[in-house]
Specification:
The protein has 204 residues and is mainly alpha-helical. The longest helix is centred in the last third of the chain and has 33 residues. It is globular, with a radius of gyration of 18 Å. About 16% of the residues have low confidence.
Length: 204
């Protein structure tokens, strides 16, 4: 698939026609299936890193309208490799805090910039603000979302163990739900922090 094809697919998605992107999604997974299985040694993990990568691809090129890559399939495979390495790193570090997983500084800066705010959460004075915002954001989520997010910090429980408990028809739907919950959490954190900053300005 060349850059012209992917540009057309992205343009259709931006106009509300997601069928070409869905076809591209299925085609790309079939192309990368054997490579992903070789990388992760697991069908479930292959599906998970692929879905995570495709969601990031959507956010970057459909939502943020960045210039699409010339070799989209090769680009997505590199995203999958990075997602897999990140997963392994997170699972290896059982002491990592939830703030570090979901509210890293680079992501915070990007989101604040995209929302039109010049504020950045980059110094020691804002750590407490970030922590309070995260706790509040977590408490605002549904029980199902909280369970899916907390699962990432529990090294003794596999994500697929929650599939039957939460009534998902397949593992892919469960991974998609987890990704949506993570996005909802991060978005809520940014909203809370923005409000906290506005309140600080009015009291100064």
């Amino acid at each position: 698939m060349d850059s012209t094809d992917i540009t057309y697919i992205i343009e259709c998605a931006q106009k509300g026609d997601e069928l070409p992107f869905t076809t591209f999604f299925d085609h790309t997974f079939q192309k990368l299936k054997s490579k992903l299985l070789s990388l992760t040694k697991s069908v479930d993990d292959s599906q998970e890193v692929f879905i995570i990568s495709m969601q990031k691809f959507w956010d970057r090129f459909v939502i943020n309208q960045e210039e699409p890559p010339h070799n989209s399939i090769g680009y997505i495979f590199m995203m999958c490799k990075n997602a897999w390495l990140m997963q392994k790193r997170n699972k290896a570090n059982t002491m990592v805090s939830i703030e570090d997983i979901y509210v890293d500084e680079n992501a915070m800066q990007s989101a604040m910039k995209s929302s039109g705010s010049d504020s950045t959460i980059v110094n020691e004075d804002h750590k407490l603000m970030k922590h309070r915002a995260l706790v509040e954001a977590l408490n605002s989520l549904s029980l199902k979302c909280k369970s899916l997010i907390e699962n990432e910090l529990d090294s003794n429980q596999q994500l697929k163990d929650l599939q039957e408990e939460f009534g998902y028809n397949n593992y892919q739907a469960l991974v998609q739900a987890k990704y949506n919950c993570k996005k909802r959490l991060v978005r809520k954190v940014y909203e809370i922090i923005s409000k906290q900053q506005e309140n600080q300005k009015t009291t100064m």
